[in-house]
Amino acid sequence: MNRSAIEPSNRRDAPPNRHHRANHRPTEEDAQVIPTKPTARQTLVLAIAIAIVGLIIGLVWQQSTADPADRSAGTAGSTEAIESKPDTGAIHAFDVLTADSAAVSEPEPTVSAPLPPPDLPLAEIYDELAERARRGDADAACRLAAELDRCTTARRYLTAIQRYEEFAANSGLRDSEKESVPPDDSTIAMLASTLERYEPIETLCRGVESERLREAYDFQRIAAERGSPSMRLLYATRPMLDRTYFLDDLDRWHDYREAAPIMLQRALAEGVTGAVPPLALSHVPQSHAPPIPLGVRQPDPDRFMTFQFLSRMLGLDPFRLDPVLDRMTSELDPKRVKNAYTQAEQLRARYFANPQSTMTESPPATSDDPEELCRH
After folding, report:
1. Residues 6+ apart with CB under 8 A from 123
2. N or C, which terminus of the chain has less Cβ within 10 Å?
3. What is the C-alpha separation between 333 and 174, in angstroms, rounded?
4. Is 60 exceeded by the pLDDT of residue 143?
5. Reduced to 3 states, what is the DSSP secondary structure of residue 123?
6. Helix extents (H) in 205-297
C-alpha cells in the first residue's frame, strides 16, 4: 500500500491527525511555534500593565469632561479654534482672586489641641480625630485624611504583590517541578522593598474597613477649607481620591472639580507660588494641552497666558509649558497677549511683591508620614 496516500502531509495547512501527532517527535521547526511559558520579566510587565488599566480609564474619563469645543479644537489643532473663543481673560482673570474669593467665607482659625502620637493603630485614634475634624479642627482633619490615604496606598501595593505572586505561581514561574523560572534579582529586590515599606503600615491599618478609607477625601476637604494655604494646594493638585475605582466616588469627584479651582486661587492669593503653575496647566486649551494629568480642566487661552506669564516671572515651569506659551503668543492677537501679560504683572505686584509673605515651599506630593504631610 502506498503509505504516502494515507499519511498526513507535512504541510502546515494539512488537517491534524491524532495518531500522527502522538508519535511525532518535535523537530527544530516545531520548536519555533511551540508556545513557551512567559518569563518572570514578561509576567511582571503584564501585571504592571493590568494594574495601570484602571488609571488609564480614569484619565480618559477626566479628558471626557473637558469642554466639547475644546475637544474639537484639539482634533483640529488650528489657531482658528482658539481665536473663536471669546476674549474672557480681560473680564475674568481675577475671578476668585477678587469677587469669588470675597464670597468664600474665611473660617475662624482654630487652635488645635495636641494630636495623638504618631504610628498608633488607626482604629484606636479614628473616632477622636473624626470628631475633632467634624468640629472644624483642620489639624485633626489633615492627620486623619493622611492616615486613611496611606492605608489605601499600602493595601493597593500589597494586593498588587499578592496578585503578582498568584499569577506567577499559576504560570509555572515558581513552585513548579519542571523548568521553574524564578523572578530575576531586580524584581525580587523591588518586591522586597515594597513589602518592607508597606507591611508595617498595613499593620497599623488593621481593623479599618475599606469603605471607611474612602473618607480620606472628606477630611482632606475640611483641612483644605480651614487649614493652611499649602493644604489647599495639596487638595487641588493631589486629591485623596482613588483613581483606580473612580466610578465609586463620582460624587466626590464632582465636588472636587467644583472646589479645586477656588482652592488653587485662594492659595495663590495667600502667596503660594506653587499654585501658579497648576492654574496655568488647568487653563491650557485642549489643542495645546500636554499629556499631564490634572483633575481640574477649564481650558481658556487668555487665562492660560496670564498664569503662565506669571509662572515665568516667578521662575517656575514644572510642567514645561513655556513652549506652549511661546507658540500661542505667536498665533493669537497681539492685543490679547499684551492684555494677559499686563494682568500677570498685576497679579505679581498684588500677591508676590513681598518676598517675606511668599510661600515657596510646597507640601510633598505624597508621604508615608502623616505628620510630615500636614506640618506645612
Report:
1. 206, 207, 208
2. N
3. 65
4. yes
5. helix
6. 210-213, 216-226, 229-237, 250-269, 276-282
In this prediction, residue 97 carries a pLDDT of: 63
Q: Say yes or no to pLDDT of 161 above 50.
A: yes
The tens digit of pLDDT for each residue in 173-211 reads: 544 555 556 678 888 899 899 999 999 999 999 999 988
Written as nine digits, the cell of 255 is: 465636588
Distance CA(359)–CA(356), nearest Å, equals 8
Burial 87-119 (b: 16+ CB within 10 A, else e): eebeeebbebbeeebeeeeeeeeeebeebeeee
**Which pLDDT score, from 0 to 100, does residue 50 have?**
53
Amino acid at position 197, single letter: R
Q: What is the pLDDT of residue 366?
A: 66
What is the DSSP secondary structure assignment for residue 243, as one 8-state letter? S
pTM: 0.69
Quick count: other Cβ atoms within 10 Å of Cβ 224?
A: 28
